[in-house]
Amino acid sequence: MKTHLPKVNLDQRKWHVIDADGVVLGRLAVQVADILRGKNKPVYTAHLDAGDFVIVVNAEKVRLTGKKEKAKEYMSYSGWKGGEKYRTVEQVREAKPEFLIEHAVKGMIPKNRLGRVLITKLKVFKGPKHDHDAQMPALLKASN
């Protein structure tokens, strides 16, 4: 018996726009990661890139539950002694709000060659405008 291997047509990839205004970060990240991997399609195969492109707008308006706005910290390390930096969600939101969504989605996709390809299909924007109108993206409602 042979295993059926679906043909992934790269020309038929769709573009989706998701508005992050008032949406909980974790729930948004799960939805985006599933679309990037192609888990919402019948041709989903774990080792193939069958997903679509995702555009997330209004990244600065994403919501966190509980006390995470002040208590959650993001750590970065320069590689030098004493080179650790800790930033709260408030500080990240002021400096680069796109990082919140990119970091959450990146944690939900595979940590291998496939994951590095998948993360390039995520486009996150600070305000309500994006520069991918030529791809005719479909508006997708984020689930709360």
* Mean pLDDT over all positions: 94
Order of helices and strands: EHEHEEHHHEE
Overall shape: globular
CATH fold node name of the domain at 15-63 and 97-140: Ribosomal Protein L13p, Chain: A
Poorly predicted runs of 5 or more residues: none
Strand order within the widest sheet? 5-2-1-6
The counted number of beta strands is 6
Computed Rg: 17 Å
> Total number of helical segments?
5
For the record, give the distance between the C-alpha atoms at the N and C termini, rounded to a whole number. Answer: 43 Å
- CATH-scheme architecture of the domain at 15-63 and 97-140: Alpha-Beta Complex
Report the β-strand fraction as a percent range: 15-25%
What does this structure look like?
This protein has 144 residues and is α/β, with parallel strands linked by helices. It has a domain at 15-63 and 97-140: Ribosomal Protein L13p, Chain: A (Alpha-Beta Complex). 27% of the residues lie in helices and 18% in strands. It contains five helices and six strands. The chain has helices at residues 25-37, 68-71, 89-95, 98-106, 113-118; strands at 15-19, 53-57, 73-77, 84-88, 122-124, 138-140. A four-stranded parallel β-sheet has the order 5-2-1-6, covered by helices on one side. Strands 3-4 form a two-stranded antiparallel sheet. α1 links the parallel β1 and β2 (53-57). α1 (25-37) packs across α4. The radius of gyration is 17 Å and the shape is globular. The relative contact order is 0.25. The model has no long low-confidence stretch (mean pLDDT 94).
SSE diagram, text form:
Blueprint: E1 15-19, H1 25-37, E2 53-57, H2 68-71, E3 73-77, E4 84-88, H3 89-95, H4 98-106, H5 113-118, E5 122-124, E6 138-140
Parallel strand pairs: 1-2, 1-6, 2-5
Antiparallel strand pairs: 3-4
